[in-house]
Recover the amino acids of this structure.
């Protein structure tokens, strides 16, 4: 299964991930020790889906 490393954004295969972590009920996969270390230092920085930051750019009309 294709997954995205939350630190660097690299797309990887979950079964080939360097490591994985559980955080707030979600599983995160990492491509390298560097990314795991950054996540471990501040999981809240990386542990939230980016979707909540998305603004509805298509809602306004541009004429």
């Amino acid at each position: 299964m294709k997954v995205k490393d939350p630190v660097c954004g690299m797309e990887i295969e979950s079964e080939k991930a360097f490591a994985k972590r559980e955080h707030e009920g979600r599983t995160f996969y990492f491509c390298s020790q560097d990314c795991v270390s950054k996540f471990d230092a501040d999981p809240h920085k990386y542990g939230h889906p980016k979707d909540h930051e998305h603004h509805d750019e298509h809602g306004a009309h541009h004429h």
